[in-house]
Design brief:
By secondary structure, this protein is α/β, with parallel strands linked by helices. It has 9 helices and 13 strands. The protein is globular and about 55 Å long.
Length: 293
């Protein structure tokens, strides 16, 4: 069976500034800000939630079907996915647009300045959930705002159980919209910061949210995860990474393992244990798609 991954495809341009932003930006002159940073270290990575999750699923031997949009500059990304064995039948090419791009600059104190261009991702809502009998489970991961709303409704109407994991896209939605996502979803996953925002915006407690879905998962970084199910909260311990090189894509590695476990019919606690292991493995490598099992 196949897993449908609704989310973004993006290129990540990662730059290292061998100084400190605080030493270059004068607080008293912010009204006439004009700065330039020399970045000797630069690399370009394949990214985006759909691409990273699909990569993780293939590492686990699962069939991944991304539902995503890319621009006219995305041919090499498409070919990479195909070489990995990813089903790219539902990756839409948007003419006249670039693939989404994140440009991330990090200083010596790990402060970051990021510029993000959504590009083709803004048209992802025109790419509908496919009618396929082999899709057993799906995820609505960070993507264009309209795409997340449309795909959640389409999945529910098609009877396809899905994980709602808004990630960094959560601030785009108001309380009513977030409550609607929860009503449509079968599972909800957020990190601890997002959990606080989710409860604030919806007016629902974590206990109340858990009652509306099969399971609610709250990730706590190295501390592990809370699994809310059947009226109980269980803490699943974290997994210590062998080394910490780059957190980019850790959440997507976790999502991949979670989806694989759900598709296999595992108890949620076992799914989360696998997710913690995948996250620890990913953080020990650079980029979202360079680790291996």
């Amino acid at each position: 069976m196949a897993i449908l991954v609704c989310g973004s495809l993006a290129f990540d341009t990662i730059m290292n500034f061998e100084g400190r932003f605080a030493e270059q930006i004068l607080p008293s002159q912010l009204h006439i800000l004009n700065v330039s940073f020399l970045v000797p270290g630069l690399r370009r990575e394949f990214g985006g939630c759909a691409g990273n999750i699909a990569y993780g699923l293939r590492q686990l031997g699962a069939q991944a079907v991304p539902l995503a949009a890319m621009g006219t500059d995305g041919q090499d990304y498409l070919e990479r996915l195909q070489k990995l064995g990813v089903d790219t039948a539902h990756v839409q090419r948007v003419e006249g647009s670039y693939t989404a791009q994140a440009m991330i600059m990090t200083d010596l104190d790990n402060n970051q300045i990021t510029a993000f261009h959504p590009g083709a991702m803004s048209s992802a809502h025109h790419n509908p959930v496919p009618s396929r009998a082999d899709i057993s489970v799906a995820i609505v991961a960070p993507d264009g705002r309209e795409a997340m709303l449309v795909h959640a409704r389409q999945l529910h109407d098609a009877g396809i159980p899905f994980v709602f994991d808004p990630g960094q896209g959560l601030p785009m939605f108001n309380g009513e919209e977030l409550r609607h996502f929860i009503e449509l979803a079968s599972w909800v996953t957020v990190n601890d910061y997002e959990a606080k925002m989710l409860t604030d915006r919806t007016g629902l407690s974590l206990e109340s949210i858990a009652e509306k879905v099969r399971s609610l998962v709250v990730t706590l970084g190295e501390q592990g995860c809370e699994v809310w199910a059947e009226g109980q909260k269980t803490l699943v311990p974290g997994v210590k990474a062998t080394e910490v090189l780059d957190p980019t894509g850790c959440g997507d590695a976790f999502r991949a393992a979670l989806l694989h476990g759900i598709e296999q019919g595992w108890p949620m606690q076992r799914c989360v244990e696998m997710g913690n292991r995948m996250g620890a493995l990913k953080i020990a490598s650079r980029g979202g798609q360079n680790y291996s099992l």
